[in-house]
Structures are given as C-alpha cells and as structure tokens.
Amino acid sequence: MLKLEAATIRNGTFTLSADLIVPTGATVAVIGPSGAGKSTLIEGIAGFLPTAQGRIAWQDTDITDQPPGARPVAMLFQEDNLFPHLTLAQNVGLGLSPNLRLSPDDKARVRAALNRVGLTGMDTRKPGELSGGQRSRAALARVMLQDKPLLLLDEPFAALGPALRMEMLDLVAQIASETGATLLMISHAPEDARRITKQAILVADGTAHAPRPTGELLDNPPPVLRDYLGS
Ligand SMILES: Nc1ncnc2c1ncn2[C@@H]1O[C@H](COP(=O)(O)OP(=O)(O)OP(=O)(O)O)[C@@H](O)[C@H]1O
C-alpha cells in the first residue's frame, strides 16, 4: 500500500497536507478545484517536490527521502515528453535504459510494448510522424517498460478528443490491471474518473483527503467540489 503519514508536501509557498492510505492495486482519481494541489500531491509522491513533514511509504518502505528515479513510481505527464530526434523504439527504450544500450532481449521487450499499445511496425518513426493519440500510446509504452508498481497520471490525455481519451483511459486501466499496478490519476472530467477509478481522493482546502468511492463522492459532492463541477 501507499501510505502518506501526516505528510506535508511543499510547492513553493503552498503546502498540502495528506494523511491517507491507497491499497495496492487500487485505481484512484485525484479530484478537486483548480489550484487546490492535485499536481502537488502527485509530484510529492513522485519525489519532484519535497515532503517537509511526515513520511511517504510504499509497502512499508519509507521513500520520503528517495530521489524520483529510485522511487517505485512511473509518471505520465500532460505532455508526452517524447524526444523528437529519437525513433519511437528509442523513445520507448528509454524506459529500460537511459543510455539506450539495449540487449536483443530488451529490444524484443520494446517491440512487445509497442505491440501492446497498438503501435506495431512503427518502431522507426519519429514522434513528428505520429498523431497525438499515437504519441500518447508511445509514452504509455515507455511507462509500461519502466515496470514500476505505482503509476501516476497527471492528465496525460487532456489534449485528445473525447473518443480517443476514453480509448486511452481504457488502455491504461487494462494495463494497470494486467500488471497489478496501483493507479493514481488526476482528472478534471468526472466521466473519466467514473470510467476507470473505483476510489477518489478529494484535494481541497490544503488537504488531500482519504480515498472514498468515486461514485459516492461525485453523486454527493461537498460544496467545494460542487462549485467546481458546476453541478
Ligand atoms: N512554485 C510555486 N510557488 C508558490 N505557489 C505555487 C507554486 N507552484 C504552484 N503553486 C500554487 O500551489 C497551489 C497548488 O497547485 P497545483 O498545481 O498542485 O494545483 P492543481 O490542483 O493541480 O491545479 P490545476 O487543477 O489548476 O492544475 C496553487 O494554488 C498554485 O498557485
């Protein structure tokens, strides 16, 4: 399980408190008003922002002071972060080896990951030769290869059209379920949260609250969330 124990995450002068548990294998939406601290929570867990107080633990190992690369975390960002001068296979291969020294076995794993996300045969293309949806798929393949138990999504599909976004969300949910990964996903769209998450963390008033059933929270939103959702 992921445990945030009386944790305070600092983002410049803004601080976010969190005291919560996310069970292993859970799929959890992170919802709340704009500027409430959703990205702060995700980046704190990933180690890009410091935990000023308290602790963060994964499966009883304290990761509070670990650098991002050492944490059991893979993150999918708002931008797909593909390198334009590298081929798709190389971009995805970075998930296995930052210096791209890939063994034949590694190369086979890259191809398998590309196949899994529906990019069979596109190994040698550059990101500029792909559609937005295909670039998202490639970024997902790279995250898959990192093989980390905790998958954090900061609205990676926001720029895609609704149909493609749903397709990508379903693919992420399938992959998380196949690998047993624990999924935390920032979402502005209630339908996205309902589609692939069972639990939701409400971030509001400087606090990330303990997960509650997504449907329950969205059906009966507290005032701070009601205003934001416009319901
Ligand atoms: N470097 C910084 N210094 C001070 N305050 C910051 C800094 N970066 C972000 N903030 C503030 O921290 C708060 C939380 O920001 P954060 O990006 O986590 O919110 P969010 O819930 O993800 O917002 P959104 O839904 O709009 O993306 C905001 O009020 C923001 O203005």
From TrEMBL:
Domain of life assignment: Bacteria
Q: Where is the ABC transporter domain?
A: 2-230
Q: Which SUPFAM superfamilies match?
A: P-loop containing nucleoside triphosphate hydrolases
Q: Does the keyword Cell inner membrane apply?
A: yes
Which terms in the Gene Ontology molecular function aspect does this entry carry? Answer: ATP binding; ATP hydrolysis activity
Q: InterPro entries in the record, alphabetically?
A: AAA+_ATPase, ABC_SmlMolc_Importer, ABC_transporter-like_ATP-bd, ABC_transporter-like_CS, P-loop_NTPase
Signal sequence span per UniProt? Answer: none
Keywords per UniProt:
ATP-binding, Cell inner membrane, Cell membrane, Membrane, Nucleotide-binding, Translocase, Transport
Q: Name one Pfam family in it.
A: ABC_tran
Q: What is this protein called?
A: Thiamine ABC transporter ATP-binding protein
